[in-house]
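Lab notebook, bench 4. We co-purified these components, and the gel suggests they stay together. Before we commit to crystallization screens, I want a quick structural picture of the whole thing.
Request: model the full complex, all chains together.
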Amino acid sequence: MSATATSYDDVVARYAPVIGLETHVELGTVSKMFCGCSTRFGAEPNTQVCPVCLGLPGALPVANASAIEATILIGLALNCSIASWCRFARKNYFYPDMPKNFQISQYDEPLCTDGWVDVHLDGSVHRIEIERVHLEEDTGKSLHVGGATGRIHGATHSLVDYNRAGIPLVEVVTKPVPGTGARAPEVARAYVTELRDILRALGVSDVRMEQGSLRCDVNTSLSPVDSDAWGTRSETKNVNSLRSVERAVRSEMIRQAAVLDAGQRVIQETRHFHENSGESTSGRSKEEATDYRYFPEPDLVPLAPDAGWIEQLRATLPELPSARRRRLQGDWNVSDSEMDAVHNAGALDLIEATVAAGASAEDARRWWLGDLSRRANEAGVELGELAVTPSQVVQLAGLVAAGRVNDKLARQALSGVLAGEGDPEQVVLARGLEVVSDAGALGIAVDAAIAAAPDIAAKVRAGKVAAAGALVGAVMKATRGQADAQLVRELVLARLDQG
Amino acid sequence: MPSISRAEVAHLARLARLAVTDQELDVFAGQLDVILGSVARVGAVAADDIPPTTHAVPVTNVLRPDELRPSLARDEVLAAAPAAQGGRFRVPRILDDPE
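Here is the predicted assembly.
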């Protein structure tokens, strides 16, 4: 452990990060990659297995055509070249998550290579180069028993479910990304967000990080800012939310800086990210590992997508997120950086749905980027996980526009909605949040405020209208913010002969 | 000069989790060397007009439609396992190092 915690600002003043991301995507095919077993999530353990995905002797794999097409579509959407000829390979290792003792993957002949994707951050563009996109099969799931908190360390035995073994898994690998400096954690997050949105637009995966259908490994290295050579990288696994992608890069940069500051060297290793603490712990060291003895999979023939097939697939590409953003940006009439703020808050779909449900683009943006973003941050959840629907946001904006609630009361109404008390209209009625604009009722409070502050009242009477603010404030306070402030002001001025 | 060293054979045995004695290493290294020598003769007859291949027949794109087929019954699956628990395969401790 390092003796002193180093601040992030201090780290990026002295060190430059290089990041790289490996993202695994479970495809949303009906059946597995090499057999006809179901890929449905959440089934009883070992009920979606057969001789092929259990690796029983004599069972032979046959590749799923839809999985191949989905992988080509991903490659095309990421501006990759599609191989005209490639093979699957065996990756040999002993680990109980693969019953065959090898995983069918791709090695030196990936289906897609050399692409790029642009990510947008605060009005600037970072181009992320894609090294490769390849297709493999997912592994089984292990439960480790007998150790602390389900960890493999200290476990006495493990229990394995092979339902996931053999589900088609696409791996998207970036080239190293230098030059992002202090923005590295945000660039990493923005890249995974963009990739997720592209995959969702393609309809090839349900991309649910919490269910593991999108999983991220984050490579991070640091070198002194004046050095041309890159540092030794670590690979952080288990990064299972967009927020954690950012947290994982940031915490790893701080950790490595402390190691380097102490005059030690960073070890090339796998680290495991812990969602709760935001810290990572060391896993197996890469140096001691791993000779996978890849060789071409003899049970599968080569894959040779011809140009006709590829062009046919290209013609089915949907509107991609970057094009959609340009379209919506025009519709909403906002600047590049405003649009980036919408995108990076994860608010694009929500704002689009809110506008579709009847709100103005301005109101929709104000709610989702303002109060709702703040609450999501405080609760540590994604914006879309808040218990409020676009149509409820439309109602809130409508209540404000109609003058029935002011901003402060609207925020209270929102609290009620988030607490499950019903629609904004119901919450306003149930909690009695409506603005009081009854001149008779307010008159009493106004009289009381004037009586309580005779010297201020005298100033206003003498023509110092600005002093009336204090009296308005007193009435607002007395009515717990529910008075119609404009009406109160009019009543105060009228009573003090300034109306 | 043999085409495979004794050290390489020992390395492969370790990767394959085979317990091989020193004596066996000598035997296998010799046998593998003969096998590799025989296979190498294929290279001698391969002319420029014969591309390398991993399959005997020039077939590509053998694919199946994305359709469900029945899975096995779980009882049947786990009956073949050395140990099972809670519907899952039970396997021995994976890491050697009890922390």
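Chain A touches chain B through 54 residues (CB under 8 Å). Worth comparing against the SEC data before the next meeting. Chain A has 16 helices and 15 strands.
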